[in-house]
Write a structure and sequence with these properties.
16 helices; three-stranded parallel β-sheet; 3 domains
């Protein structure tokens, strides 16, 4: 291993049971809730994805010369069906998908696995425990989008049962997710008679690394979303439905560069439309199943998604959600920092959706809305770059040809427009107006914010 080249051999690390060193994942919540063991193809997919995640987290990027943080990986894995994974089409899709989401180069060697089946593969069930039809399976992070998306989806015609799939790497997040799920179920049952109460199942999957104190982990975590999508797809198939729903606002999904200093590795692409389309194709090949991954809110702002919470009478659930990039901030009573871009987008969306009463500045370590609280340039940076991006978008959208101005500033939008049409998300010719409409709505939300938003003065942070 040298510079940005990393080699990992996972073949000698396989252990009986559900732990595969150096990572851990437990699917008992899924298999026991649905009373269905996972297939060998699901198990192999999970091993590949978790090995990729472990390699990603244990390999620090080095920003020297022209490499711009890109890494090269070689992974050797023991699989149940290694010849299946050696197929050129599947291997090429795996490599191209990982290159896109992580900006890294990936190579693999697959050999036969000698370890016994894991518990999730081998336990037998006499009966199934499938949820009521029709079944909707969605990822549930504990954030605002997964909460607002769920109630907006219901308002738009969802009926039947709903399975929420959460993944967690520490107990505090798990507690927040479970608390929200209980509150959601109670709120949905409060919307009608007892007979009309939809069944809500919350399945939680613990995962993570078997950490070594000697390893400094890579903070970018570009493959983390792949882990979540894998858990979600396995759950959807076990629940005998062909669609995994992902609730993410469009500005977050596209995740355009905030300024000219951001490199490719700086931009998270986990739920970008291209990522979901490529992941869908990869899962179809790896599992030989016709599974779909759909984000119904890819052309909606975060504020637009959240409007359903007020009409559903569940606005009070907002304060139980988590948005912060650094959650949990270890400050008593202030679990979110308030100055990262995710916190700022959260607050912008709550104000634009009419939910500002549920957004208390005291819940954040740094309150960017408090004009009397001085913030230094470091803690004001996230706010300033987001305001700058909103101004750049506004300038492009006010041009004589808004679309040409947008793709001149953000060239990747041109390719994405073609992909969402070819992927069946939109009809031919609809993508340009949909993307431009998304960013026009986003700019309008910024323009409508109260003057106090973000106008903190120079000084020391508290």
């Amino acid at each position: 291993m040298s510079d940005n080249h990393f080699k990992y051999d996972f073949t000698s690390a396989s252990l009986p049971g559900e732990q595969i060193n150096p990572f851990r994942v437990k699917l008992k919540s899924i298999t026991r809730s649905l009373m269905a063991s996972i297939t060998p193809k699901m198990a192999d997919l999970l091993d590949v994805v978790m090995a990729v995640y472990a390699a990603d987290r244990q390999s620090r990027r080095r920003y020297k010369g022209v490499s711009t943080g890109q890494r090269e990986f070689f992974l050797r894995l023991a699989l149940r069906e290694p010849e299946f994974w050696k197929r050129p089409e599947l291997l090429a899709h795996l490599q191209s998908y990982l290159n896109w989401v992580s900006e890294d180069v990936w190579s693999f060697e697959f050999v036969p696995r000698d370890a016994p089946p894991t518990w999730a593969e081998s336990e037998l069930f006499l009966l199934d425990n499938l949820p009521e039809r029709p079944t909707t399976v969605s990822l549930f992070s504990g954030g605002l989008d997964s909460l607002g998306g769920l109630f907006t989806h219901r308002r738009n015609g969802w009926s039947g049962s709903h399975v929420l799939v959460s993944a967690y790497s520490h107990g505090r997040l798990m507690k927040q997710q479970k608390l929200q799920a209980r509150q959601i179920e109670a709120a949905l049952c409060g919307c009608g008679s007892e007979q009309s109460c939809p069944v809500v199942r919350h399945l939680t999957v613990p995962y993570g690394l078997c950490r070594s104190k000697e390893i400094r982990e890579e903070p970018t975590q570009r493959t983390r979303a792949t882990v979540f999508l894998t858990f979600g797809v396995i759950t959807a198939l076990q629940a005998q439905t062909d669609t995994l729903w992902v609730y993410e606002n469009g500005t977050g999904a596209f995740n355009l560069p905030l300024n000219g200093t951001q490199l490719g590795v700086d931009n998270y692409r986990g739920v970008h439309p291209r990522s979901l389309l490529m992941a869908e194709n990869l899962f179809q090949l790896a599992l030989e199943e016709n599974i779909r991954i759909i984000n119904p809110f890819v052309f909606s702002t975060k504020g637009q998604i959240l409007r359903s919470l007020q009409s559903a009478g569940v606005a009070d659930l907002v304060r139980e959600t988590v948005s912060c990039d650094g959650y949990p901030v270890r400050v008593a009573g202030q679990p979110q920092c308030g100055n990262c871009t995710s916190c700022i987008l959260r607050r912008q969306a709550l104000h634009s959706s009419g939910l500002s009463a549920n957004d208390k500045g005291a819940d954040y370590q740094y309150d960017v809305l408090a004009g009397g609280q001085p913030l230094d340039s470091e803690h004001r940076f996230g706010l300033e770059v987001m305001k700058g991006q909103a101004q750049d978008l506004k300038l492009s959208l006010s041009a004589t040809d808004p679309w040409m101005a947008l793709i001149s500033k953000y060239p990747e939008l041109a390719r994405t427009a073609l992909e969402v049409e070819s992927g069946g998300w939109l009809k031919p010719g609809e993508a340009v107006s949909a993307i431009a409409g998304l960013y026009q709505a986003y700019v309008d939300e910024w323009d409508a914010l109260p003057p106090a938003f973000g106008y903190a003065t120079e000084g020391d942070s508290r």
